[in-house]
Amino acid sequence: MNLRELVSALNDFASPALAESWDNVGLLVEPSPPHTVNTLFLTNDLTEEVMEEAVQKKADLVLSYHPPIFTPLKRVTWKTWKERLVVRALENRIGIYSPHTAYDAIPHGVNNWLTKGLESPVKKAALCAGSGSSVLKGTEADLYLTGEMSHHDVLDAVANGISVILCEHSNTERGFLSELRDALAVHLQNKINIIVSEKDRDPLQVA
Questions:
Q1: E strands of 117-192, at which residues?
Q2: So where does a divalent metal cation get bound (predicted)?
Q3: Which of 59, 178, 190, 205 could potentially form a cystine with 41 if both were Cys, beta carbons 3.0 to 4.6 Å apart?
């Protein structure tokens, strides 16, 4: 599948226009054309370890939920890990695409996946993948389910009779990748191979 054709299909699946204004979404790294994508590689965070996995699995495009390029890069050298990601991607002709908050906004996106984890009766739940403090603050609900909130925002919520479940930032997002793989396979009519990273994991480890 041609890269431009695939990017257009990904944009149809979740329009970048739905992303927050501060976000950096869409095609972030593009190898020189023409570029054919046979294997689409899904990850929540594109770390150096995950990039090496993508290289080994001969990925042609990495879809990273979190944009690896968020603050502008002034140079592309071997000095920082994010610069090295770009170097490795271009050396191996791997594109990088990020949907981030566009996937939070769509009805079949990350927050919809989060609701599937609720089993006990809750009349009104407010959910936000990732960091939910600013989004959930002031929302009337019985339960807040998100990745992280400030301590004071948690205190405010509890004082107002709201239960709070914090799952750590990326734990509210990473599990969506398997569901995304199946949804994209249907959306792309099984024209390409889609795999989920096995190396992608929460950066915080319990000792």
A1: 125-131, 143-148, 163-166
A2: 66, 104, 169, 173
A3: 59
Segment 16-20 long-range contacts (CB within 8 Å, at least 24 positions apart)? 16/99, 16/102, 17/102, 18/101, 18/102, 18/105, 18/106, 19/99, 19/100, 19/101, 19/102, 19/105, 20/101
Count of Cβ atoms closer than 10 Å to residue 62 Cβ: 27
Give domain 3-102+174-196's CATH superfamily. Answer: NIF3 (NGG1p interacting factor 3)-like (3.40.1390.30)
Closest of 145, 144, 149, 42 to residue 103, by C-alpha = 42
User: Each residue of 59-88: pLDDT tens digit?
Assistant: 999 999 999 999 999 999 999 999 999 999
Enumerate the domain spans of the chain: 3-102+174-196, 105-172
Give me the mean pLDDT over the 107-124 stretch. Answer: 82
Q: Does residue 201 have a pLDDT over 80? A: yes
Binding residues: 66, 104, 169, 173
Q: Which residues are annotated as a binding site for a divalent metal cation?
A: 66, 104, 169, 173
pLDDT per residue as tens digits for the range 117-128: 776 667 888 988
